Amino acid sequence: MSVGTLTINFKFPVVKYNDLILARYINLSKEGSLDIAVVDDKSIKFQSELKLASGTTLLDNDVFVELAKFTEQKELDLDLYKLANEKLTLKKFDVLNEELLKLNSLLDLRTYIKDTVEFGLEDILVWGILRSNGLMGSILKNKNYINLTRWYNHMELYPVLGESHQFIQQECKNLKTSQKLKNAAEGKKKEGHKANFDIDLPGAKIGEVVTRFPPEPSGYLHIGHAKAALLNQYFANQFKGKLLIRFDDTNPSKEKEEYEQSIIEDLALMEIKGDALSYTSDHFDLIYDYALQMIKEGKAYCDDTDVETMREERGEGIKSKRRDRSVEENLRIFTEEMKNGTEEGLKN
């Protein structure tokens, strides 16, 4: 007899794999204990929902704790549970990195998180959360997490974990099939998707088109990067031109060689290969000279307005109070303060 129904929302940015895996794990030991449903609807605001036969309904982060009560282990490390939900779901690498290094150290001489003979609730929890984090693909390639990678890959060998994504995909496929059958019965016809690359480039000539993809090596490749790279490659190929990849390495405090290498590898996975690779820093002298020229011509100025005020002024169309600085003052700040990295220069 079913004790309740777990519903997973696949359209939510962070899919609750940990809840799904735990429910399937429970059903392996107590067949039919939980009904599992998958919805593919962005209008639904929950990540996961557990409706118990008793009439109680739980949402999102409360679901896993409740499901844990149906296992032999029953009790969950709540401190780890809180940390995992707060930190391991983040897409900010600097914060995520700190926690992953701790986890990597913990797993140094352990097969499982709690140093048990078999995996437990904590392993399901952490693995499921990491599975839903889009950064994991690049993280698993990083040699700094050798123990974490070993553990993650080992856990994935268990079908109840490793096949969780296929389970959701199959359920979504079944949903779409059911919807198509329903639409057909009601005489509805789905409008086709009209997105394409059929974009006109006036004046473009075969062999003369040069496109550029300029990622900043301060993080991993994301969907915005991928769209830009694919579009630029398309037009370069369409007009038998060139695609230039130029790393915009102008912010050394945020950049790492690790990110640069990861971006190149991910581009290769998408079969994107530039005709030339360059760096903005290769042209700093030229950029500096142009900046000087623009200041002398009154076309550029130095501005130490704080970020929030600047953002507000831009939104309201209000000119900066520094816009009317004299050419001489701007040249002094640029060549003496900014160039030498003084306290005043760093504010501009």
Task: Summarize the structure in words.
The protein has 348 residues and is of the alpha/beta class. It has three domains: 162 residues, Glutathione S-transferase Yfyf (Class Pi), Chain A, domain 2 (Up-down Bundle), CATH 1.20.1050.130; 75 residues, Rossmann fold (3-Layer(aba) Sandwich); 47 residues, no CATH class. Helices cover 48% and strands 10% of the residues. The strands form two sheets. The chain has a four-stranded mixed sheet. α1 packs antiparallel against α5, α3 runs parallel beside α5 and α4 packs across α7. The model has no long low-confidence stretch (mean pLDDT 85).
Topology:
Elements: E1 4-9, H1 17-29, E2 34-39, E3 48-52, E4 57-59, H2 61-68, H3 78-87, H4 93-106, H5 121-131, H6 136-139, H7 146-156, H8 159-162, H9 164-186, E5 210-213, H10 223-238, E6 242-247, H11 257-269, E7 276-279, H12 284-296, H13 307-316, H14 327-338, H15 343-347
Parallel strand pairs: 1-2, 5-6, 6-7
Antiparallel strand pairs: 1-3, 3-4
Helix pairs in contact: 1-2, 1-5, 3-5, 4-7
Query: What is the count of β-strands?
Result: 7
Shape: elongated
The proportion of residues in beta strands is 5-15%
- Classify the secondary structure makeup into a structural class: alpha/beta
CATH topology description of the largest domain: Glutathione S-transferase Yfyf (Class Pi), Chain A, domain 2
Total helical segments: 15
Mean pLDDT: 85
Q: State the name of the first-level CATH class of the largest domain.
A: Mainly Alpha
InterPro entries: aa-tRNA-synth_I_CS, Gln/Glu-tRNA_Ligase, Glu/Gln-tRNA-synth, Glu/Gln-tRNA-synth_Ib_cat-dom, Glutathione-S-Trfase_C_sf, Rossmann-like_a/b/a_fold
Protein name: Nucleotidylyl transferase
Organism: Hanseniaspora valbyensis NRRL Y-1626
GO molecular function: ATP binding; glutamate-tRNA ligase activity; transferase activity
